[in-house]
Amino acid sequence: MAFAPSGPEASFFEVLDQHRASLLATLRRGGGEPAHEGTRLASRFEDSVGLHMISHCTTRKIKSDSPKSVKNFALILKILSTIYKLVQSNTYATKRDIYYTDSQLFGNQTVVDNIINDISCMLKVPRRSLHILSTSKGLIAGNLRYIEEDGTKVNCTCATAVPVSSNIQGIRNLITDAKFLLIVEKDATFQRLLDDNFCNKMSPCIMVTGKGVPDLNTRLLVKKLWDTFHIPVFSLVDADPHGIEIMCIYKYGSMAMSFEAHNLTVPAIRWLGLLPSDIKRLNIPKSTLIPMTKRDQMKLDSILKRPYVTCQPFWRKEMEIMGDSKMKAEIQALTFLSSDYLSRVYLPNKLKFGGWI
Question: What are the recorded Gene Ontology BP terms (predicted)?
Answer without folding.
Answer: meiotic DNA double-strand break formation; meiotic DNA double-strand break processing; reciprocal meiotic recombination
